[in-house]
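forwarding from the other thread:

> can someone predict this with zinc ion?

sure thing
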Amino acid sequence: MKKKVLVLAGAPGSGKGTFKEKITENWEFTGYPYEVIEMSTLLKGSKEFQKIIASGALVNDEDVINIVKKPIEEALHFIILDGFPRTIKQADFLLSLPKLDLIVVKMEADDKEIIKRVKGRRVCPKCSASYSTIKEELMPRTPGICDKCGAELIIRSDDTKIETRLETYRKETEPTIKYLKDKGLPYYEVDSNNILYDGFVQNFLFEIGM
Ligand SMILES: [Zn+2]
């Protein structure tokens, strides 16, 4: 059986995290098994990679491919792939893997909005929940404190490099997404403001046949 892979793409701060959260919430409700493969989590183990990411640059293709290969191969079910592929070389690797049904979702938001959002973003260092100081629907109940686990919220170090990351995204990753689209894969563009609407994610899942 083929594994369905949702390739979740988009600039930093384009709403990928919220979209992913909404999708997994819906799934937990239906009981349908899924797995989330997050490149940022996979790269967390290495100080060297963390340094590169914090600078706003990308970790090199060989290392990224070596790290992501096993989790993709071992996943049994529907996969949400976040943060991979970011370059054409990584995309070619993904396309070369057998028995995958790839669906590309690109989150859209303009740079000004992204910069505003990312500068207001706060994350929980314990459970990775994500919050905002500017978006009302994403504010924690108590300012600076995680709703889910009570830890003190922090600013992600790479968020302070948002301008550099956006530049890297426009130069490397955006052409990669277009490359996947041009290969004829099912492709959806999602306005990141839409994902907070009730029913949007249910409709989306229905549309991709889940
Ligand atoms: Zn937390």
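The pocket of zinc ion is lined by residues 124, 126-127, 129, 146, 148-149, 151 (CB under 6 Å). thats all i got for now
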